[in-house]
Here is the input.
Amino acid sequence: MNERLVTDIRDSLHDDLVSYGFLLQCIKSALNQGSPSRPDVQLTLEQLLALGDVCIGEARLANADYVQFTGWQGESSELVERAFRVVDRASEQDKPFAFWLCLASNVDQFERHESSELPSTAEQGDEPKSR
Here is the structure.
């Protein structure tokens, strides 16, 4: 996969979270073709996670001014598989927001459990980090 693509997506994380929909748009632009294939998305996610400072998870509106990011736990391959499962289960209108990417330094909290089959349960009490 295009190293520039991975670098550009990672650089985008300095300012904000990156949604699945934005990820697809980045891949589509980099490949200069229609909708990216699942293997293209898988490879890009694997390369991003391999950087060691990119996390995948869920985002939710914590209040009117803040989006809270909950990182998923697991091995890289498990996280990528989980991301595809979440996308597959999402309604068509929710697919672009099925999962999010975030720099590890900006993760608000991580799930308590380690099973990727369980619904997300985040640790409570962590103060949100500013982005």
User: Anything to note?
Assistant: The first helix runs from residue 3 to 12.
